[in-house]
Amino acid sequence: MSHERIQAQLQQLKEELDRDSTLNDQQREELVALAEKLELMMSGELDRPEQELLERLEQEVVLYEQEHPVLANVIDNVLNLLHSIGI
Questions:
Q1: Euclidean distance between CA atoms 78 and 71, whole angstroms
Q2: Which of 31, 33, 77, 85 is deepest in the core (most CB within 10 A)?
Q3: What is the pTM of this model?
């Protein structure tokens, strides 16, 4: 169930990235790449350590909370769900 909720939040993140016209191309590309890495992590296909991705998520929440609060909230939801399943 939690994996499904995380997938749903990742989908919401991608949708928010499509909607948020105030992001520049580099920001959008970095967040899309992060979402894709998270999907790989959830499927067990990622070789990189999980901790590195979690730290990136935390940084992104802080980075975007002022100018992009909805986006920061979605990222924070993903982070909280990952913590709730022990990642």
A1: 11
A2: 31
A3: 0.82
